[in-house]
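Tutorial handout. Part one gives the primary structure; part two gives the three-dimensional structure as tokens.
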Amino acid sequence: MSQTYTLEVLAQLTGLSTQLLVSYQEHGIIQPQYDDDTVRRLRRIEHLRESCEMNFEGMCLVARLLDEVEHLREELRQRR
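Part two.
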């Protein structure tokens, strides 16, 4: 079972402000249950935001694509 975090702990783990995290949640980039997957997702998205200067729409698209990639990886694991 994955560890769950409060908004404040998630902010500390990722170095992001709680205000930015709430914005990400409002835009559907992250889900309200904060866990280790959320931390990994935020680190990937923040890297892309900083290196590619993406706006929220771009980050939403990337978030959906990351979900699809993870779903496909899980399908491949189950086939093996």
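Part three, for discussion. The domain at 4-79 is CATH 1.10.1660.10 (Multidrug-efflux Transporter Regulator; Chain: A; Domain 2). The chain has a mean pLDDT of 90.
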